[in-house]
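dude i think i finally got it to work??
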Amino acid sequence: MLNDEKNILNTLFQVRDEELAMITKQDKENLREVNQRLKQEELKFKETINYLPKVMKQNKRNIIDLFYKNLEVLNERNSHYDQKYYEAGFKDAVKLMFITLSE
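look at this
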């Protein structure tokens, strides 16, 4: 039974994730400032790397690659927690519904 529940939750999460993945006009508006800051920080990072001497060209590439790989890992970790909290919230909602219906 537990595996069935987990599969149902995973399926619901994936469907909901796909629905929410579409970027709406409201999303763009809400994230405008954050996205601007993100672009500014990325630009600062690249400018700082460019101050390294030209003889360190390969080191620059390696640092930039490591930076983007680190971002990917952070995104994976955040996705894990997003799914965890979604599943917990869904379970809580179902429990509340059953409690309400049983009264």
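Residues 57-102 form the longest helix (46 residues).
im so relieved honestly
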